[in-house]
Backbone:
């Protein structure tokens, strides 16, 4: 096999076997020492091979000859090439001995891919088309480069694994970011990876991610251009590789109908008892086949461990399956966002009734996306603008974040706070890249995105005076496109609605004002602010409502008053609240008037 793989001549083959023989049989080493007249020279040399092997030729040991080009033989130190010791490469020796393994020099960089999943019909079709491309490649030419474009890396791997298995091939993957910048190291990696793909009868998948810029001079392009064997490249967006003949395939996430089909296959008879809950899951969570099977198997195992639940009401089953999907789909944001535990309920939110009614309408819109968009055909009429975006505006402390928590709790969806300090970058293009990562991750997880103080990110586009203004406007335009395409719920909060770009406001479906609470609303907040287990004594909500502060400040005052009372080992009193209020007013640089605390004691 090695002769055919690497084009060895008879002399090169015999020289390789001579080096292998001395490693595997000590008698061969003794013969080498005898022939060379030195008991210490037990390894073969090129001079020995030229003297004893037939059809010898000097070109067998040139740097471009297959023995050294493919690093089948290593030339040891010596004064002359003909007398330097020759040794077979360890990976080749193990191959000849019938114990193949991944070359140690490739470990941690080139990774074998074994796992696969049952593919959806559209992905099976792409897998078969890849096989046809390989079958039509001419033996004397390098196979065409296959580029696979898509966001779901796991699905891309599954498609490639299926194509490889259909052709009796294995698969290795290599991250483009791991390709070394040094020309010497990069060339060595190409040689060793090409050699490994031949020895293992495998192809290579280079995974190009967002950390690698699409620079024409990037080391990844050099690698792709010079790699001669079967090669695939996965990219998020299409890239141009003019140096090679290439074929491009787009691998989209499974459609809603394909996801539904997988759910039915996994759950079996149980699926018919969920009464439309699968449609809700498909609408909110964009899960690939592997994730669906993992979630389905988890719920089935849970039912097997408690058989009585299998015949119980559907609601507990649907609830458990929803929570499993929620956990399975939880993405990684790489410090660009943090998850906020949603603990607030409707009763915790003090708002005028019109605002509460709008929030309920927002909940209904999220819940009924599948029915309205798919069953009722709105997605077919206009595929754009299907996301649900809400703007919460009002002064600080009026409950905007709490409102988002209430929605997340009601909808049983994860709420993620987008950290603008890590998303917004002074470097050109970085903000756009960060936002792409946020939206791509969120689309898979059925998330609620909370852009706090959104005017810092969604502000008005400026007049173009220099390149920085132009790129800032490009970022805003990109945001407009992504928010219009995002199928989840995005909530923007701001203290200054007028600072937002009007183009954003036109695309926001729900605009809800969180007003500064009046006296009656402040009294209602005070009535609910202390947990039921907190000991209180002689609190008067009507008098407390004279404190002219928002709900966020009321919470701070109540919490500090509780600490003061706990330190004295007694219930919370009006005096504790007055002392805590004085500290809060100092913090916000506002005078506490005598009228606000009149008749408290």
Residues:
């Amino acid at each position: 096999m090695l002769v055919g793989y690497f084009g060895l001549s008879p002399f090169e083959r015999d020289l390789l076997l001579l080096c292998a023989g001395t490693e595997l049989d000590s008698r061969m080493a003794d013969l080498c020492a005898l022939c060379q007249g030195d008991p210490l020279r037990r390894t073969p040399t090129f001079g020995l091979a030229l003297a004893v092997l037939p059809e010898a030729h000097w070109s067998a040991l040139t740097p471009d000859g297959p023995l050294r080009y493919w690093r089948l033989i290593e030339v040891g130190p010596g004064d002359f090439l003909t007398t330097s010791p020759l040794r077979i490469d360890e990976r080749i020796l193990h191959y000849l001995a019938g114990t193949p393994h991944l070359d140690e020099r490739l470990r941690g960089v080139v990774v074998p891919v074994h796992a696969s999943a049952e593919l959806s019909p559209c992905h099976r079709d792409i897998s078969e088309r890849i096989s046809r491309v390989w079958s039509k490649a001419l033996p004397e030419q390098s196979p065409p480069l296959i580029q696979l474009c898509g966001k779901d890396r796991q699905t891309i791997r599954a498609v490639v694994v299926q194509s490889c298995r259909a052709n009796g091939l294995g698969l290795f993957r290599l991250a483009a970011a791991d390709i070394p910048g040094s020309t010497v190291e990069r060339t060595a990696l190409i040689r060793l990876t090409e050699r490994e793909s031949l020895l293992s009868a495998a192809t290579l998948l280079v995974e190009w991610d967002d950390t690698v810029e699409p620079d024409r001079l990037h080391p990844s392009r050099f690698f792709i251009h010079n790699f001669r064997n079967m090669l695939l490249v996965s990219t998020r967006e299409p890239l141009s590789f003019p140096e090679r003949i290439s074929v491009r395939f787009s691998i989209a996430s499974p459609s809603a109908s394909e996801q539904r089909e997988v759910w039915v296959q996994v759950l079996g008879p149980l699926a018919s008892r969920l009464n439309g809950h699968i449609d809700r899951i498909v609408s909110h969570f964009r899960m690939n086949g592997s994730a669906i099977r993992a979630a389905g198997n988890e719920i089935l195992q849970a039912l097997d461990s408690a058989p009585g639940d299998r015949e119980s009401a559907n609601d507990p089953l649907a609830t458990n399956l929803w929570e499993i999907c929620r956990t399975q789909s939880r993405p990684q944001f790489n410090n660009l966002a943090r998850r906020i535990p949603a603990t607030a309920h409707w009763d915790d939110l003090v708002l005028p009734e019109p605002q509460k009614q709008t929030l309920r309408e927002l909940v209904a819109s999220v819940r009924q996306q599948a029915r309205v968009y798919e069953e009722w055909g709105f997605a077919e009429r206009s595929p754009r603008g299907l996301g649900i975006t809400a703007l919460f505006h009002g002064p600080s402390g009026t409950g905007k974040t709490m409102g988002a928590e209430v929605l997340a709790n009601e909808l049983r969806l994860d709420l993620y706070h987008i950290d603008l300090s890590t998303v917004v970058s002074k470097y050109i293009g970085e903000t756009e890249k960060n936002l792409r990562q946020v939206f791509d991750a969120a689309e898979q997880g059925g998330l609620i995105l909370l852009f706090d103080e959104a005017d810092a990110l969604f502000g008005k586009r400026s007049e173009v005076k220099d390149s920085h203004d132009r790129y800032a406007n490009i970022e805003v335009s990109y945001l407009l496109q992504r928010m219009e395409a995002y199928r989840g719920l995005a909530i923007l909060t701001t203290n200054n609605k007028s600072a937002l770009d009007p183009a954003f406001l036109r695309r926001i479906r729900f605009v809800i004002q969180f007003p500064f609470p009046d006296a009656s609303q402040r009294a209602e907040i005070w009535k609910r602010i202390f947990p039921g287990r907190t000991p209180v004594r002689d609190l008067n909500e009507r008098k407390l409502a004279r404190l002219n502060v928002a709900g966020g400040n009321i919470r701070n005052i109540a919490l500090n008053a509780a600490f003061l009372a706990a330190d004295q080992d007694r219930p919370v009193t009006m005096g504790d609240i007055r002392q805590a209020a004085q500290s809060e007013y100092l913090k916000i640089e506002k005078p506490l008037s005598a009228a606000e605390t009149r008749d408290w004691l």
